[in-house]
Design goal:
Blueprint lengths: L1 H13 L2 H4 L4 H23 L10 H4 L4 H34 L2 H15 L7 H17 L3 H14 L7 H33 L3 H28 L2 E3 L4 H12 L4 E7 L10 E6 L2 E7 H6 L2 H16 L2 H19 L1 H4 L2 H6 L4 H5 L3 H45 L7 H15 L8 H7 L5 H22 L1
Parallel strand pairs: 2-4
Antiparallel strand pairs: 1-2, 3-4
The structure holds zinc ion.
The site of zinc ion has 4 residues, from α13 and α18.
Length: 465
């Protein structure tokens, strides 16, 4: 532990200038956030002309009727236009808020709110919670009309919307209540760790965040998701039998098998698993069950179990720990930096002893361009894992010596195509757009890779004979 703190101390000395030099952080944040926004707009402009292509890629031609293809192109076009305009709108709002010193104003407003209840500035944690709540409110409300438009105009037009205004409002209120119920105690504990551990907070905060993530893994599907969706045990039948048999052969510790009234039309959350290492639960979306035959759903599950077999969730957790560690290791330099707060219009008395939460949020906005790069790397890693899980499904026949699994790759391909067509997912994708945004390879890329995996799995199976 001492070694860690010596190293962290050395890093802080490198960054000591942050605490003394009057750097124009505000201009830096404005310029860098505009750069990220304009780059994202540029990606949309690269992608946009592809929605005018008259026919799907040759590999997909036989699976798309011309009507379905035209619908998918029109849907993509509308979504891209919406993304471009809402991205620029959000950026203009954020830019104005930074320009007019929204952080300083919100901190002051939180202080006055607390004072109205008889609490002074000594109650930093309470003031921090009020501060974050005020900031969240003023950044969410202007985006509400966009969200209404997206659900009731854009999705409606393309036949995807199943949300009623009542459900929309109920979801919104539930979301807010939940954010407060979980967010407030989380923030209080987070800030308490800082206060308690002082400048040696890095390992303690890491431990706290890891514990929080693990608790959420348990709480999310059992407590939170049921607030929005209904999970019911998958009824007995061919599908259930197939999945239970597959899980048993792979020694996957399956405890519960659920069907969810999803209709959350995301092409990759068609089925997933969760739970602790010794007790796992599988959830399948009702839409997938409706669209695909039992043997195709089984192939999707074989892919999901590939993620489990290769421990992809654990690996992603480790990478995210490394990411969090880097952020926390850099943070102390910004934690005691009056010039940082001064740059964002805070009065001298607040800036002299920066409140932890204020310093942390300002630090986050400084990190934003770096986070965009980290996002690209995380997407690349996630795409690799997708290929690995697809290969796992193709190789099951050899791994298990199961002749009846020889066409799993084909079944998986069919299920992916069906999902894609039903979701009107985009088929022509610009490579740079995809590298930046996509956590999954495109359908064309996956089908091509599946062909390769099937071929090499076939060769391996022959060798074993
Ligand atoms: Zn996957």
């Amino acid at each position: 532990m001492d070694f860690l703190h010596t190293q962290l101390g050395a890093l802080q000395r490198q960054l000591a200038f942050v605490a003394v030099d009057p750097i124009d952080w505000k201009t830096y944040v404005q310029v860098s956030s505009w750069a990220v926004c304009l780059f994202e707009s540029y990606l949309l402009l690269r992608q946009y002309p592809l929605y005018s292509k008259p026919a799907p890629p040759p590999a997909l031609a036989e699976h798309f009727s011309s009507g379905d293809f035209a619908k998918s192109q029109a849907y993509g076009r509308d979504k891209a236009k919406f993304a471009l305009l809402s991205g620029l709108y959000g950026q203009v709002l954020e830019s104005l808020q930074i320009h007019y010193g929204v952080y300083a104003w919100a901190w002051d407003a939180a202080g006055r709110l607390l004072a109205a209840f008889g609490y002074g500035p000594a109650y930093e944690i309470s003031q921090s919670i009020a501060f974050v709540f005020i900031l969240a409110l003023i950044s969410t409300i202007p985006n509400l009309p966009l969200s209404v438009y997206q659900t009731f105009v854009l999705e409606e037009k393309h036949g995807f919307n199943k949300t009623t205004p009542g459900l929309f409002i109920a979801d919104l209120l539930k979301g807010w209540a939940l954010a407060f119920a979980i967010g407030a105690p989380f923030l209080a504990a987070f800030l308490y760790v800082f206060r308690w551990a002082g400048d040696r907070f890095v390992p303690w905060l890491m431990a706290f965040l890891l514990a929080f993530q693990l608790i959420m893994v348990i709480i999310y599907p059992t407590v939170i998701q049921p607030l929005f969706n209904k999970l019911s045990p998958l009824p007995a039948g061919e599908l259930r039998t197939r999945i239970e048999a597959l899980a048993a052969r792979l020694r996957f510790p399956l405890t519960h098998l659920y069907e969810i009234d999803g209709s959350k039309r995301s092409s990759h959350s068609n089925a997933y698993f969760f739970g602790l290492p010794w007790s796992k639960h599988i959830v399948i979306f009702d839409t997938l069950i409706k669209q695909s035959k039992a043997d195709e759903v089984e192939a999707v599950l074989a892919h999901e179990l590939g993620h489990w077999y290769y421990m992809h969730p654990t690996k992603l957790l480790c990478v995210s720990q490394l990411h969090i560690f880097t952020i926390l290791a850099l943070f102390p330099a910004f934690l005691h930096a009056p010039p940082l707060l001064r740059a964002f219009d805070f009065p001298a008395d607040v800036a002299a002893h920066p409140p932890t939460i204020v310093a942390f949020l300002l630090f986050q906005s400084i990190l934003r361009p770096i986070e965009a790069v980290v996002g690209v790397a995380m997407n690349a890693l996630s795409r690799r894992f997708e290929y690995e899980a697809d290969r796992f499904a193709c190789e099951l026949q050899t791994r298990l010596g199961a002749e009846e699994m020889r066409d799993l790759g084909e079944r998986l391909g069919r299920a992916l195509i069906a999902l894609h067509v039903k979701n009107l997912s985009t088929v022509w994708v610009d490579w740079l757009y995809s590298a930046y945004h996509h956590s999954h390879p495109t359908l064309t890329e996956r089908l091509r890779a599946l062909e390769g995996f099937k071929a090499s799995a076939g060769v391996a199976a022959k060798k074993e004979l």
